[in-house]
User: Fold this.
Amino acid sequence: MRYLVQAILLSGLLAAHLPSAAVAASEPSPDGAAARAAAPPNLGVVGIGVKDLAASAAFYAEVLGLQELRRYELGYIEEIVMRHPDAEGASIVLMHWPGDASRRYEGNDVKLVFYVDDPAAVLERIRARGGKIDREATPIEALNGRVVGMGRDPDNYVIEVIAR
Assistant:
């Protein structure tokens, strides 16, 4: 049941960014047989609204080493999909609605968590760009002493960095 709920919630977002073969693999086979070895859903993309697409792309490239995978310009929305070139897992989509003054981009209670080698170094890169630091990189007892820090991106989203 849990996987069904996750699949329903993620289907719209994932379908927009998955290759057609991946979407087709989740559909029943032509002979009507159910997929015997279906993989559980996983989060593929997280999208956040940003007020300055170029500034946000530069932030994620320079602070976290993400690279642009693709860019969409659909008239009503512009998006940049980014991910670290050596990482597996979710990508981030920076979304901007040009000409829509009603959009609010200020954080919207979103936190993006990145596993990094050196949380303190990432926070220093955020600080060097004039970003806010919410929590210096220090060990957290509840996480078995793993080092965790928190800063903010240009749109005030929380960037949490956790030592691998």
Summary: DSSP finds four helices and eight strands in the chain.
